[in-house]
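Anyone up for a design puzzle?
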């Protein structure tokens, strides 16, 4: 089963809107959206995400543990590399619940399972990079460029994704006057999960966002994708303007 993180998915949108309400100091309204997401979840992928967000809000450790274990069981049923990136987070959160309940045997077992599932990404791609630069097959993309999100920052890594939605967003937000392009790229060295998105809003790295200190080789160009609408572009620029979070470079 190949699960792609889609920001237009109704359940994911409910959870994203719930997170915004939490950030605005409205936990009760956020909880209502997370409960709605759980009710509307139609498959194990959606249930895994909805249960995780419901778990985060629980005051009772027992309730939190129950929902985290539900989230994990749904994630295990999906059996997809995209979702496997969430296993370490889920097992670690479950372990902390057992610790609070003074069940140290189960805590130890879940910490060990969290550790087992950590490691370099196993994603095989295909990988994409969104930009406005006019490049050719065989060219290399390298670290050291200015950040799209903070023009004062020179990036120590080159970023890419296995999610076409992420690449088209990067192309829309990229600096420059050229046309938006999404290149198919191949890492030439080791790469890691992008810490700027991993575990920030959703467990693991569901958007399949990565970075590397080594160059990316351009092996093609993806031409079948829809540009963001003017409204979507405006909403994203507004989000960036409001985002005060530190970029992990």
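Challenge accepted. My sequence:
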């Amino acid at each position: 089963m190949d699960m792609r993180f889609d920001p237009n998915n109704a359940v994911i949108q409910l959870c994203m809107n719930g997170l915004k309400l939490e950030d605005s100091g409205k936990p009760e309204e956020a909880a209502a959206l997370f409960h709605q997401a759980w009710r509307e979840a139609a498959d194990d992928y959606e249930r895994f995400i909805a249960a995780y967000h419901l778990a985060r809000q629980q005051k009772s450790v027992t309730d939190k543990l129950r929902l985290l274990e539900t989230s994990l069981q749904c994630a295990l049923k999906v059996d997809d590399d995209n979702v496997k990136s969430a296993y370490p987070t889920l097992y670690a959160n479950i372990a902390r619940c057992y610790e609070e309940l003074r069940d140290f045997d189960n805590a130890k077992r879940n910490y060990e399972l969290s550790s087992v599932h950590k490691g370099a990404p196993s994603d095989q791609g295909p990988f994409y990079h969104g930009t406005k630069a006019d490049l050719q097959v065989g060219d290399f993309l390298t670290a050291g460029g200015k950040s799209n999100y903070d023009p004062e920052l020179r990036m120590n890594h080159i970023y890419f994704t296995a999610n076409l939605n992420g690449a088209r967003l990067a192309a829309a937000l990229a600096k420059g006057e050229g046309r938006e392009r999404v290149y198919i790229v191949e890492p030439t060295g080791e790469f890691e999960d992008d810490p700027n998105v991993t575990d920030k809003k959703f467990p693991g790295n569901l958007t399949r966002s990565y970075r590397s200190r080594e160059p990316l080789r351009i092996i093609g160009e993806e031409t079948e994708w829809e540009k963001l609408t003017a409204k979507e572009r405006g909403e994203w620029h507004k989000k960036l303007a409001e985002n005060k979070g530190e970029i992990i470079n």
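A detail worth pointing out: The first strand starts at residue 127 and ends at 131.
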